[in-house]
Amino acid sequence: MSAIRKDFSVTYKANIVANINTFHHIHDLTSLVLGSSSGILQLESYHGLIYFLVTNIIVTLAFFVVILSGNLKLIPKYYEKGLPGLVFEGLSRSLAGFFMMWCLTTALIST
């Protein structure tokens, strides 16, 4: 009898791309919500930027705790570039959305 070898190291490119898109979609939405909330709270200058960075880190960690059950060794299996690639790849896009909503809500509330 031949033993059937189970190879769990196979990764599927379509699944990895879907995982990355889901991660970026969540970051895009949260950056818009965070920008709106910082505008409503009337945060200015570094206070708003620190608010974005801290809450962005919290959202990223919460995503990995919920999706990967806190097992950081699974990150390379589900995401090609690992944690630094995911966080820094979409950071400029998230930051742009945050600043856009921050300025818009600040302008709307101050008038």
From TrEMBL:
Topology with respect to the bilayer: Multi-pass membrane protein
Record-annotated membrane-spanning stretches: 49-70, 90-109
Subcellular location: Endoplasmic reticulum membrane
Keywords in alphabetical order: Endoplasmic reticulum, Membrane, Transmembrane, Transmembrane helix
Superkingdom in the source lineage: Eukaryota
First-listed, main subcellular location of the protein, grouped into a coarse class: endoplasmic reticulum
Keyword Mitochondrion: no
The keyword DNA repair belongs to this UniProt entry's keyword annotation: no
Listed GO MF terms: membrane insertase activity
A GO term from the CC aspect: EMC complex
InterPro entries membership: EMC6-like (IPR029008)
Example GO BP: phospholipid metabolic process
Family to which this protein belongs: Belongs to the EMC6 family.
Name of the protein in question: ER membrane protein complex subunit 6
Organism: Kuraishia capsulata CBS 1993
